[in-house]
Amino acid sequence: MKKFFVSFCLLGLIVTAEAQDLQTIITDAEVQRVVGTLASDEMEGRRTFTKGIDKAAAFIAAEFKSYGIQPLKGSNQYLQSFAMIRPKFISASGMLNESALDTKQIIAVTCSKDLQVTDKSGYEVAVIAKGANLFGEARKYSGLTKNTIVLVDTSFTSSFGRLAQLKGNMFYSDKSVVFVLTPETAIKSITIDAKHDIQEMPLANVVGMIPGKTLPNEYVIFSGHYDHLGINTRNMVNNDSIYNGANDDAAGTTAMMLLAKYYAATKSNDRTLIFAAFTAEEVGGFGAQYFSKQFNPLDVKAMFNIEMIGSESKWGKNSAFITGYEKTDMGKLLQGNLTGTNFTFYPDPYTSQNLFYRSDNATLARLGVPAHTISTTKIDVDPYYHKASDELSTIDISNMTQIIRSIALSARGIISGKETPTRVDTSSLR
Questions:
Q1: What is the pTM of this model?
Q2: Pick from 116, 143, 198, 204: CA 20 to 30 A from residue 392's CA?
């Protein structure tokens, strides 16, 4: 009984200490400072490939350094740099089974300036037959994981040219895929010569980590995207052309940053915590896609993606919703850690919007990770969404502070390793 009483008292002291840390680290003033900086005119709307987003990245990296968190293993900086490749078509020619191929019969998805392929090049051969789903089948090869020649039936002549969209934005790869429009279903001989002007577009996520004390190889990710829409002089609001993106998603990025600050101070994590500010969400989710490739998905035990928490939810203050709530038991675990508080996590009420697969949690969720987005925005009626009016003045700072504190409390069981959410069933995605 005495041991039980002592243990109970220690638990009470820990909970009290955590509450004090929450109150002193995650404050209204700190929330306003960080979200206000990210959403300031100085950041010029944080559009991908602009000086504004570079300024935002530098600010986030400096904050990470001040918190005392580390770069990812193997890196000496917080910027996780990569590039998107944009091939600009110059020419294409070839022969298939001794018959000449017209330029319009060849689409090469490649990062090579001068691609030359023959039947001796070791390329695998695939066929997209009449009646197949052309784009669904074509996307299977667009990841450029294998050198492949894909023979596409001539019944797709009218839509074949649209496959060029697959090379609009790509990660660098030394593999190539060549689509050939032909009635042939086998290759006896082939030569392909395709030339492109290759443009590299540099990007960077901002990523830091706090190593786990006892479970360092198990990861919990906290994330938000820091890019927005930039400057648009054609759709101004009251002569304002800067799309500041205060709620979308300076708010979520701020939450991720202050959670990093809080966990760095409390040092309460047994699992390794990863904090990621993603780039290029607004133009295709490329930052999250690149980031996700750096992890074995089985090692990632949970992902808290935070987006647009700067307003009250449809249920009012002290509430938020979780996308894909029914796909794992993560929401129930989080709510269990909030017993005794007045905060509630609800299932996503906007399922028709397909939000679970529209944000940066999607890449890892498709790989089975319990990766969910936490949000409050009334997405069906949000008056500021993707408008110049999405400014700091629209943010409910005190409510946002409570949301961030509640996320910190709700994650206790997961970051300690005592709770592990069930994984997303991916069988229906295959």
A1: 0.88
A2: 204
